[in-house]
Amino acid sequence: MNLSTSLLLNRPTDDAVSVSDSALLQLPEKVLQFGTGVLLRGLPDYFIDKANRQGIFNGRIVVVKSTDGGDLSAFRKQDNLYTLCIRGIEQGKTVEENVICSAISRVLSAKSEWTEVLQVATNPDLQLVLSNTTEVGIQLVQDDIQQSPPQSFPGKLLAVLYARYLAFGGDPARGLVIVPTELIPDNGTKLDAILLELAHRNGLETEFIDWLESANTCCNSLVDRIVPGLPDANTRMTLENQLGYTDELLTVAESFRLWAIEADIESGNEKLRSALSFREADPGIWVQPNIDLFRELKLRLLNGTHTLSCGLAFLRGFSTVSEAMQDEDFATFIQNLMLSELLPGVPYPIEEEIGLQFARDVLDRFRNSYIEHRWLAITVNYSTKMQLRNIPTLMHFYREFDTMPRIMALGFAAYLLFMRGVEERGGVWYGKLDGEAYPIQDDKAAYFAQLWQTQSPQELTQTVLQNRLLWGHDLAKLPHFSEAVGYYLTQLLADGVKATISGLSVQQNPSITIPQSA
Question: Is this prediction's pTM over 0.85?
Fold first, then answer.
């Protein structure tokens, strides 16, 4: 039996899946969404479905897909319903929840149904535009909005806004709230600037450009939820047996969810408050005048911990993040790294409880065995990630505490060891672990391979830390940092990763004193 409206309406109440009330299928279309990807289905669309169930938002989503292929037929076959299977850990407890999401009313192909998309623009109920068109979607390209359809996402959106302007005679009350979720900083600000530039390039009238700027609001946003999408065949069979039906759009997501939207809802802008009313449906939605805090926490705690741990974990023999968290010593390393050094080193003012709660959530995410996050994949572009995610934290930690962060030092030493390339094949350098080759997918791989061939571990440590082109700073000038990194690198080589991690709390170099971290 396939998922469908008929199944939804006739399914008996049980604990296997959460089913929405049939009345929600008749709600007006308030949202226009560009993109059908799993992140949108697993986060914004899930939140709107949840808000509808609570009687808060009371609106459905028209989705625009750029092509006719892919999952378009699956949406139509299933009456635009899909199942979200949420799996994870929250506050140490396992979470397993299945939800049939009914927030999507229809999916339109921009390629073959562009006229219908423009018709949506004339709907007086429309309030909100969402998007996730990948990072390259928010770019300025030469585009003609009179095409059917325009080439780019900003071109399509501008055409929609122009159609709405014409339909309502430039009524300022009919402007829209636009929330892109593409994973780039200041996504709303950048999209806003592109729309304005495209309007000028298309020779649109001054009155429309004034309406575009004054009646519409582009909000920066940050989304964070791992949504791998369709599970492997065995997992899917198990889930569908549990659900009692088949679902071509079945989507798995972790339990953690965050959608931070930059908007001042206390400013008296009722249109903004109404369009974002779904914010009250879930504690994972944050609407604030400034969302830099959430960007910093994600970058420094989640991404930063990944980067300082990935080399060490891989060399220890762990394949995935959750596997490493099952090892007591390594789990302790990650927890101490995050709470004792990275959180205090975040170069942004943070309320203590907000920072601690975010860290606890990250640790729960790391323990989630339902999500297969591979350490080797995290090492891609290792050097760039280290520079962006961890060097500002390291520098701020020294400024605040004037103390050497020894757990960071061990993570940095493991980075140096991971980057020891021993052979090159097809333009890719490879390291060796227990006789097996692993790829070093980093643009500095050749630089490190040369250093390992010509310098001792202590010399290499000093050379790399002094490299301002890599880090923007001479890290060798940080008190005791070079000695500690060199010491840990030597110990990793001599004793191995397991012994080094196990003895981290009691290790002392006879030639230097490694201060305890704050």
Answer: yes
CA distance 3 to 247: 6
Q: How far apart are CA 50 and CA 282, in angstroms?
A: 8
Side chain identity, residue 430: Y
Question: Can you read off the two tokens belonging to residue 390?
Answer: 């961890």
R_g of the chain computed on alpha carbons: 26
Contacts of 307 (CB under 8 A, 6+ apart): 378, 382, 385, 386, 389, 390, 411
| Distances 358 to 284, 298, 326 between C-alpha atoms, Å | 11, 8, 20
End-to-end CA distance of the chain: 58
Spatial CA neighbour of 217 closest among 278, 128, 131, 140: 128
| d(C-alpha 166, C-alpha 247), whole Å | 40
Place of tokens 């953690």: 256
Alpha helices in 216-327, H assignment, sequence order: 233-243, 270-275, 292-297, 304-316, 321-325
- Do residues 381 and 360 make contact, with C-beta atoms less than 8 angstroms apart? no
- Stretch (H or E) spanning 53: helix 44-53
Consecutive sets of 10 residues in the chain, 518 residues long: mean pLDDT of each? 88 80 94 95 98 97 88 93 94 92 97 97 98 87 96 97 98 97 94 98 98 98 90 89 94 95 89 96 95 94 97 97 96 96 94 92 93 92 96 96 95 98 96 97 97 97 98 97 97 96 62 37
How many Cα atoms are found within 13 Å in the side-chain-facing hemisphere of 411? Answer: 27
- The pair of structure tokens assigned to 19 is 């089913």
| Encoded amino acid at 223, one letter | V
Own/partner pairs, 280-283, CB within 8 angstroms, 24+ separation? 280/51, 280/54, 280/56, 281/47, 281/50, 281/51, 281/54, 281/56, 281/57, 282/47, 282/50, 282/51, 282/257
Provide the pairing of β-strand 221-224 with 436-440.
unpaired
Cα–Cα dist 489/458, whole Å = 8
Query: Residues with Cβ < 8 Å from 154, sequence gap 6 or more?
Result: 138, 139, 140, 141, 143, 191, 194, 195, 198
